[in-house]
UniProtKB/TrEMBL annotation:
Keywords assigned: Signal
Signal peptide: 1-25
This protein's name: Outer membrane protein beta-barrel domain-containing protein
Species whose genome carries this gene: Roseovarius albus
Length: 272
C-alpha cells in the first residue's frame, strides 16, 4: 500500500514536469516574434520562461511491474514539487522559424516508516526534455479587426525520466525503478489572431510519439492570450491540456506512464 503511494507521488512529480509552454503568438501576422514594422529579412528572437499549473492529474504509473492509480489536484502537486525550470525559444526570419524548448526538474523525498523495524525510503525523481523543431508560416491574412496567421512545425524531442525508489531497512537495502531516455518525432500547428494593439489570442496543438520507442502518444493543447505589456515584453496566460502514454519493459518489469493533466499556464516573453 505504501509502495503504491510512493509510486503515485513520484509519478505525478514527473508528469507535472513533462509539459507546457505558451502559444508564442505575437502582435503581428507577419512574424510571431516581430514587433510591428520589423524587417522580415532580419532574424527576430523570443525567449519565454513559463509555468504550467495542473489543477487535475489522473492516470496510472507503473514501476517494476507494480501499478498505482493517480488522482491529484494542484495542492497535492505543489506540496511535493521542490523546483523546476522551463523555457521556450524561437528564432524567425520571414516565414521560416526554429523552435526549441527545454525542461528540467529534480525532486527528492525521504520517508520513514514507523514500526519495530524502521524502514527508510528515498525517492529521487528527475525529468528532462529538449525539443527542436522547424516552423513555417503557411497562411496569413487580415480581418476588419486585425491580422491573423497559421504556423506548422515538425521536429524531434528527446525525453529522459528517472524514478528511483531506494528502500533501506535493518535487514536489507534495495532499489526499484531507474532511468528511461528516448527520442520521438513531433509535429505542431499554431494559430494567432490580433484582437487589438496590445492583445493577441492564440492556440497551439502538438503531437509526438506515434508509437516510437514505446511512446504511444504525447499531446499538448493550448489556448490563451498574449498581452503586450511593454515594447519588448509580453505576458501570456491561458489553459492547457496535456497527456502522455509511455510504456516499456525493464529487467525489473513493466515501466509505464499513462497520465492526463489540465490547468492554467503563465509565461513572460522577451523579444529582440
Amino acid at each position: 500500500m505504501f509502495l503504491a503511494k510512493v509510486l503515485k507521488s513520484s509519478a505525478i512529480l514527473v508528469m507535472s514536469a513533462i509539459i507546457a509552454g505558451g502559444f508564442n503568438a505575437q502582435r503581428t501576422a507577419a512574424n510571431p516574434l516581430a514587433s510591428a514594422g520589423a524587417d522580415p529579412n532580419e532574424w527576430h528572437f523570443t525567449l519565454t520562461p513559463y509555468l504550467f499549473l495542473p489543477t487535475s492529474t489522473e492516470g496510472t504509473s507503473t514501476v517494476d511491474g507494480s501499478s498505482a492509480s493517480i488522482d491529484l489536484d494542484l495542492g497535492d502537486i505543489l506540496d511535493l514539487l521542490q523546483g523546476a525550470l522551463s523555457a521556450r525559444f524561437e528564432a524567425w526570419r520571414g516565414q521560416f522559424g526554429i523552435i526549441t524548448e527545454g525542461y528540467y526538474v529534480y525532486i527528492e523525498e525521504d520517508v520513514t516508516l514507523p514500526g519495530p523495524a524502521e524502514v527508510n525510503l528515498n525517492v529521487p525523481v528527475k525529468q528532462a526534455y529538449i525539443s527542436l523543431m522547424g516552423a513555417y508560416r503557411f497562411h496569413e491574412g487580415r480581418t476588419s479587426r486585425g491580422p491573423y496567421s497559421w504556423d506548422v512545425s515538425g521536429g524531434v524531442r528527446w525525453n529522459s525520466i528517472t524514478q528511483d525508489i531506494n528502500i533501506t531497512g535493518p535487514a536489507r537495502a534495495t532499489s526499484l525503478g531507474g532511468t528511461e531516455t528516448w527520442f520521438e518525432p513531433a509535429i505542431g500547428l499554431r494559430a494567432a489572431y490580433e484582437l487589438s494593439e496590445d492583445w493577441t489570442a492564440g492556440a497551439r496543438v502538438e503531437l509526438s510519439g506515434f508509437g516510437v520507442n514505446g511512446n504511444d502518444l504525447q499531446y499538448t493543447v493550448l489556448t490563451g492570450f498574449d498581452w503586450q505589456a511593454w515594447e519588448n515584453v509580453s505576458l501570456r496566460f491561458g489553459y492547457q491540456w496535456y497527456g502522455i502514454d509511455f510504456a516499456t519493459t525493464r529487467s525489473g518489469g513493466r515501466f509505464a506512464y499513462d497520465v492526463d493533466q489540465h490547468g492554467p499556464y503563465l509565461g513572460a516573453s522577451f523579444t529582440w
